[in-house]
Input
Amino acid sequence: MRQLYLLKSLWLSGLLWIFLCQVVIAESATELDSELPAVDALNNQEEAAPEWISQTPTSDTDEFEEEEDEEEEEEDTLRIVVTAEKTPEVVQDVPISLTVLTEDELEDADITSLDGIAGNTPNFSSFSATGSRSFAFYSIRGLSNQNFGSRDPVAFYVDDIPYDYGSFIDLDLPDLQQVEILRGPQNTLYGRSSQAGVVNITTRKPTNEFSFNSTVGYGSEENLDLRAGISGPIIEDELFYRLSGNYERRDGFYDNSFLDEEYDEKSGGTGRAQLRWTPTENWDVSLNASFEDYQDGAYPFVALDDDDPFDIEQDVNGFSALSTNSQSLKVAYLQPDFRVTSITTRRFSDQAADGDLDLTTLDAVTNGSAFDSTVWTQELRLQSPEDADQLQWIVGGYFESREFDNNGSASVFGDDAAAIFGPTVIPGSSTLLTSDSLSTTWAAFGQVSYRPIDPLSLTVGLRYENTDSTLSRLEQVFRISGFPDTPLLAFNDVEQSTDALLPRFAVDYRLSPEATVYGTIARGYRPGGVNVFADNEASLRFGAERSWNYEVGVKTTWLDDRLGVNLSFFHNPVTNYQVATFDPFTLFTDSVRNADVSITGLELDVRATPVEGLDLIAGLGLVDAEFTSFIDPNTGTNFDGNSLPYVPEFTYNVAAQYRAPFGLFARLELQGVGKTFFEEANVVEQDPYAVVNARLGYEFDQYGVYLFANNLFDTRYIAQGFDFSTFGSASAGAFGAPATYGVQFRSSF
Output
């Protein structure tokens, strides 16, 4: 009941927003030319947009269609094509709560990170510590990765390559073509811990004509941002390439006055190479390879109760280094009666970090860590042709091998440790934990959608998935320089196996060409596994998390496709919710417990184009996520009724954008986040806040020049928080980025 007032207020605000959009559109309708094309819900304005905003197809087979087909597509620009259910479909026809960020919107909002994607998506939150890549917390629909000793609740894909673990996902994302955010369990088709949803990121593809794009930006804290992409044919109409990448560096937002140095600086970049080969109309082969390499400052870990948290005094600055590389091979074979798709991927990630943990100028304690992960996947799909109407079907299999190694996480006590922890602490001593793990997953899945009558579609799907995890080695030693290590823990060949049947049922009914209602029931699942951070025998394993998601929604378009309104309601009870407990010295998960939780909420998406050149976008997410049964076995504390960590009570995003025929471009954004707690006891919290972003530019020919401001009014907010009473501070963690300003130049040929 604590959110009843908030629910009513925001619901009325959403209805008012829809009403105002309808009024503005109705008043301006008579001023529009009768031949004005329908404007797509994600800002596809081909006449008003400059030439450098490229238009690339999204399906696997339509990239090189005849001119007349392209002209037909231009006449119906509302038809945003997505592959949410692993086949090209119009977004309004998909019975899923789904947000799509098209290439135009990604360009206009300058979205190149997970933060930017989340900020424009209802009920998706990313908690980035001033852009630090040390570890990214996130949540979708009430489920977060705060339990980072276990599996992710969201499946992230970049060009079909699965990305996992919070230290390996918050990367630069230049040269994007489209992002699809699917909310709610998607385990039937995606498996792989997609219990909260899927974030499917697609970069720009190789083209049959030469093209080049670049961006040069400079902003606050000497932030230099360079991006470029080049594409073209190697063999015309048959073999194509694309090369893209970026480099970015900036000074730190924090000043360490004790060392007279800056803190949390960033430096690094990415590179991507793609080949696409279409030897015949039946074959489509894509080969992708990419890398990321970053040398950043330490995770900005500070006391949250300081009056000026960006001016710190610590005796260690530390560092954070991350490198990854990925490869994928996608082979598609098309026949009039079926399609076959094979996707093979590999991704390697390596991170090392070190930083001050006592938050003082004393040489008391530092923390270091080093991890690496190698993931291989293979998926094989057989499915109906793209033009199948009455009956669509898909069957497939999936295999994954994941090695995750803890190469050393340690807390090292310095000469001044006794001043904080007492005389029993030995200066120069440390506790070092290392471990190696391997998990293998295999699955078989299928889904059928049948349309018995034209307005009605029935969908049923089922997946069987099995995950076997082995902790091949875990060792913890007590170390004093100059003395032999003292073993504290040693475990070998610890095994855990979990499996699940994951059904999905969906019904959608088209009330009219402009309105569709749908309902779904889906099973959610996060596998159990082994804990590479365990500190005792009881914490070596954790069980599987399971849920049922019940959802109803409506998708509508109004006023000749100039207004789109999508609304969904969901209820998601979760059993054996994985709760992490943390070691106060390392901040890593030392055990994973289980609880029952209840999650209920809604999402509202509104997009309108009242007049040519003007776009209005709004999103609202409400979620009530709380424990229904959880008593901490260590302390006996009852957490029933407490909110889940890293789950804002609400999120909203509003954007107004205008592109004039003479080249003026302006965009204003308001993004808000509700009250958020950062641990199960609900002690560390952030009150509701909002940030304002703005862009103003001039576009001409193939060029654009822009001024930008992010967090325009310098709102201060907590991004990550921990109960840090062990060290005498009520709470510690990291803040979000302060106000930043800059200029940007773009070109495209």
Observations:
- The chain has six helices and 42 strands.
